[in-house]
Design brief:
The protein contains ten helices and eight strands. The longest helix is centred in the middle third of the chain and has 24 residues. The protein has an eight-stranded mixed sheet with strand order 3-2-1-4-5-6-7-8, with helices on both faces. The N and C termini lie far apart (about 45 Å). The protein is α/β, with parallel strands linked by helices.
Length: about 325
């Protein structure tokens, strides 16, 4: 069983790391540990106000001088993603690590600003567009070990996902948990396909690594309960978090490990404890559907068309 913790991360002085959803939960704890090790952490948040409050909290509760840069990035808006990336290009020469961490879970059907079903739009398409737009900064970086890294946060719920390309945006029918599972499967298809396409370059410039946090006590579950409109579900989520969930600091470890440890591109980092839902990080394997290359290529083509974002190796 793994005993790796955030204390085992190397120093990250001079490194720049973007964390989406950095103002709460896994992103908040990941930001703390990256910055504690000396990195400049760009906190990409939907709400700048909440991001600034989180940065103040981190500085007040961490015994270190943290270098934090709070910026607006609403993954439900392709325009916001573009503006965030343009601002990064104006102010930074390189980006060593991108953590595609933010997400929504099992919410009633709604659509993003661009007309995508929100879970697919935020969890996958927003991060696809963000990665593509930040790609020049990633390829300009020294990274952790000579290559930049893209870390994409999935979930054990990917095992319930199914790619139905005839109705990706759930316009014909909608199941909130099935939609969440599909978005998390899409995260993995993207992460592995990105690595395959990078490997096809004559000079591979980054590593794409996927991870999942296990069952972790964060406000993601609470927001799911609130969005359901069912008070009993909200109470149930709180009880489940208290009884089953590990703390957010431990839940952030797979992301930290994927970003900084010696892992191969295309790896899948997960908790190494009970049913891979608790404990310290280890390299594991996601389900067979996540390695379906035909689905991955089809999703990539759809995502390129839907977002209008092309990666350099696709041009």
């Amino acid at each position: 069983m793994s005993d790796w913790t955030a204390a085992d991360m190397p120093r990250l002085d001079g490194k720049t790391i973007v964390v989406t959803g950095a103002n709460s939960g896994l992103g908040f704890e990941g930001t703390r540990e990256f910055a504690r090790k000396g990195a400049t952490v760009v906190m990409a948040c939907r709400s700048v106000e909440r991001g600034a409050d989180a940065a103040d909290d981190l500085r007040a509760t961490t015994a270190a001088d943290l270098d934090l840069d709070v910026r607006e990035c609403d993954l439900a808006s392709l325009a916001s993603v573009r503006e965030f990336a343009e601002g990064m290009a104006d102010d930074y020469d390189a980006l060593d690590v991108l953590c595609n961490n933010a997400g929504v879970m099992a919410i009633p059907r709604s659509e993003t600003e661009d007309g995508f079903e929100t879970q697919l739009g935020v969890n996958h398409l927003g991060h696809f567009a963000l990665t593509g737009r930040l790609y020049p900064l990633l390829t300009a970086a020294d990274g952790i070990d000579g290559r930049a890294r893209v870390v994409t946060q999935s979930s054990g719920a990917h095992e319930t996902g199914e790619m139905d390309f005839s109705d990706l945006n759930w316009e014909e029918s909608y199941g909130k948990w099935k939609a969440y599972g599909r978005s998390k499967l899409a995260n993995l298809l993207f992460a592995y396909e990105l690595q395959r396409r990078v490997d096809g370059d004559a000079d591979p410039t980054l590593r794409s690594v996927a991870c999942h946090p296990g069952y972790t006590d964060t406000n993601l579950q609470i927001r799911t309960g609130e969005a359901s409109g069912n008070p009993l579900m909200k109470v149930g989520m709180r009880v489940a978090n208290a009884v089953l969930g590990q703390d957010a600091a431990t839940g952030a470890e797979p992301m930290l490990y994927a970003a900084t440890a010696d892992v191969s591109g295309g790896a899948y980092v997960e908790p190494g404890g009970l049913m891979n839902m608790r404990g310290h990080p280890t390299v594991g394997r996601s389900n067979d559907a996540s390695y379906d290359r035909a689905d991955a290529r089809r999703l990539w083509e759809y995502s390129t068309d839907a977002t209008g974002v092309e990666f350099p190796f696709d041009e």
